[in-house]
Amino acid sequence: MVSSNLIYIDIVVVGPTASGKTHWAFDWACRHNAEIISADSRQIYRDMNIGTAKPPVALREKIVHHLLDIRAPDETYSAGQFVRDARAAILDARSRGKKVALVGGTGLYIKSLLFGLAELPPEDAAAREIFLSQRDQTSTEELYELLLQQDPERASALSPRDRYRILRALWLFHASGQQPSRIYREQTRNPPDVSWGEIVGLLPERNVLYDRINDRVVRMFEEGWMEEMHQLIRKGFGKNAPGFRSLGYSEILDFLSGLQSYDETLRLIQQKTRQFAKRQITWFRHMAPVRWIS
Question: pTM above the 0.70 mark?
Answer without folding.
Answer: yes
